[in-house]
Amino acid sequence: MSLPRFTVWGVTGVPEIGAGDDLVSHILQAVAAQEADDPEAALRDGDILVVTSKIVSKAEGRQFPAADREKVIAQDTVRVVAERVHPGGVTQIVETRHGLIMAAAGVDTSNVPDGIALRLPEDPDASARAMCAGLRERLGITLGLIITDTMGRPWRVGQTDVAIGAAGVMVTDDMRGGVDANGRPLQVTITVLADELAGATDLVKGKATGIPIAVVRGLGRLVTDVDAPGARTLVRSVDDDMFRFGSAEAYRLGYEAALAELRDGGQTTSKRVKQRQD
Amino acid sequence: MSLPRFTVWGVTGVPEIGAGDDLVSHILQAVAAQEADDPEAALRDGDILVVTSKIVSKAEGRQFPAADREKVIAQDTVRVVAERVHPGGVTQIVETRHGLIMAAAGVDTSNVPDGIALRLPEDPDASARAMCAGLRERLGITLGLIITDTMGRPWRVGQTDVAIGAAGVMVTDDMRGGVDANGRPLQVTITVLADELAGATDLVKGKATGIPIAVVRGLGRLVTDVDAPGARTLVRSVDDDMFRFGSAEAYRLGYEAALAELRDGGQTTSKRVKQRQD
Questions:
Q1: Contact A1 B153 (CB under 8 A)
Q2: Which of A89, A128, A180, B227 is the most exposed place for a label (fewest CB within 10 A)?
Q3: Which residues of B touch A181 (CB under 8 A)?
């Protein structure tokens, strides 16, 4: 077809990944096996690989004893954003060291052996750059790579995959200053390509199917330098963040601030509360 | 390829849509024109059409004079979630009558003629059902249909498309109770397929290209009854919503509640503030 189009498929046959494994080699082997069945599966210039963070974590040795779960979550947490107690336990939404807002700091115990838990890669953009550079070198082609994780979101049910690491692919399409077909300024200004790619590939990767990698073909116009801005640039700045705390947490901060100001006469406490908000 | 895969392409040649237009006919004509160039473009059983809400609004006569913008935003707003004053004006995040949390209640002035603004469809799920049923009847095939709009989100920069209406397609994959490859409970429980489809197709639809419709082929397993639960079911319930207000707004509510309780001795005001939160 000569239409604007792209195709997404899952890379099957990736073996269970262990600490220290060369993930690039595993990917190339899995792709080669698919290629034997279907020449179309051979990677090409302009392809974008989308890789579940879980296998990156495994290769990077991010496994730890599940008994240490709370300790590791605390290590990976910069601050608690919101917390809710419910019959099943406590749901804590935190900001991770990567700037991601997610439950349990991304620590996961599904799709890992019993007694083991997994934390996110130390620096997902660096992981993406290393893998992207390795694949480009070994294949002699120019492709992009995204590392995904699964996140909930406010206001809407459920989870989707988003980009937590990226290399060699444009993470946003910044249309600020652009115009529509009538020459009028576009109100939507920054399309988040990397998250749209992450979500798209979740439709073939799936959590229950054991397919950790997908290929996107047909969007080669998004492929760029390995060192282009990564997924870290998708984290909103504190100044632009209107939802820095859960409503209950912010309400409580305001309530306590008023009480403290009245008790202390205002000056010092007001400053202290402001610091807690920053 | 016999791999798990799908393809996405844009439907080009959709004309400018006006109030009262039969959108189903316009879609069929545009598809037929593509089909003349490429037989693959003919719609088939299991295809999912993803349609930008803008053309649905236009067909449903949701245009209004741009001068009435503030009045219409107020009409479509259930409550203000967060507000921020900045050099360019005031950004107001509101909950619309549809349960969507978005800036300006989805009112848009891009890609419409000068002096005109556009509001969201009255009932996007109903619009989706009507279009899906019409297409199924006229083509004699079973396809799904999603209506999208563009939304910002907390914590992460930029915007992506999400589903605001859906018919004939599973909007979520509910894996609660499911297990991973090791037989352990899946921690991620509800994958939001409709939003992932919406984001995926934004990669070919694009705001500046004037392509308002995309087709997804290869995910026929997600196509279901026209009357299956729609996009309205993606709106999180009040009880599950930890981010019902912006942080500044919730902080102010807490602050005022404390002052009011101290002033009034507690009982009545505490009740009033609680009502404001509900």
A1: no
A2: A89
A3: 111, 208, 210
On whether the CB atoms of residues A197 and B196 are closer than 8 A, the answer is no
A15 to chain B, minimum CA–CA distance in Å? 12
Distance (Å, whole) CA B124 – CA A29: 46
Dump pLDDT digits (tens) for B159-214.
Answer: 999 999 999 999 999 877 766 666 666 655 899 999 999 999 999 986 667 899 99
ipTM given for this complex: 0.91
- Which structure tokens are listed for A65? 């004893």
Tokens of B79: 């409550």
Is A83:A252 a contact under the CB 8 Å cutoff?
no
Q: Which residues of B touch A106 (CB under 8 A)?
A: none
| Strand-pair category, B213-217 with B63-65 | unpaired
Torsion of CA A141, A146, A147, A148, to 10 degrees: -140
Chain B nearest-CA distance from A121, in A, is 18
Rounded Cα distance between A177 and A168, Å, is 25
To test the contact with chain A by mutation, choose from B55, B80, B102, B188 the residue with the greatest count of A C-beta atoms within 10 A, namely B188
Quick one: tokens of B220?
């026929």
Which chain B residues touch A193 with a CB distance below 8 Å? 203
Cα A184 to Cα B116: distance, rounded to the nearest angstrom? 12
Query: Strand ranges (DSSP E) for A183-225?
Result: 190-191, 213-217
